[in-house]
Amino acid sequence: MAETLLRKKSAAREATAAHAAVASHREPDGGELFGIGDLCAEFGITPRAVRFYEDKGLLKPRRINSTRIYTRRDRVRLALILRSKAIGASLSEIKQFLDLYGTHGEGRVQQMKYVLDRTDEAIAQLEQKRAHIDASLAELRVINDTVRRALQART
To answer: CA 132, CA 65: separation in Å to the nearest integer?
Structure first.
């Protein structure tokens, strides 16, 4: 019990230290900085997920001592990663998309063309799946109706 209490106090001190590190290193030009807990709370993900995206090279936070510090750019990248995953993009596709942007946004047009091609392709695939689903539903309704009538005729 005492060991658990010590661990909780230690974790609380580390969290306080992390918040202090973020606050003390705010960029003078008004750039926002975030801790891993800030991003996790905002996007409803775990620290493990954020670290996973770091390991894959999708996020590159600054480090102050052992504390990860994320910029607005990292925050936007994380939002794009999560939105891209939600529509079925693979991690390699997401990395390719993010890398197109470049350091200073010089690849923005290429990035938009990539998104346009990718979304056109996804829309076409989904429309094809919907057509298949509609055809399957129509066939099932015919079968269902036929069986229902046959049962009613026997009763």
So the answer is: 55
| Domain 1-88 bears CATH identifier 1.20.1730.10 | no
The closest of 7, 63, 8 to 36, measured between CA atoms, is 63
Question: Angle 12-16-19 (CA atoms, 0-180°, nearest 5)?
Answer: 140
Average pLDDT, the chain: 85
Q: Are 17 and 67 in contact (CB under 8 A)?
A: yes
Q: How far apart are CA 114 and CA 101, in angstroms?
A: 11
**8 vs 3: CA distance, rounded Å:** 9
Report the predicted TM-score, pTM, of the whole model to 2 decimal places.
0.64
Angle at the Cα of 20 from the Cα atoms of 1 and 52, rounded to 5 degrees: 75
How is the chain split into domains, by residue range? Answer: 1-88, 102-155
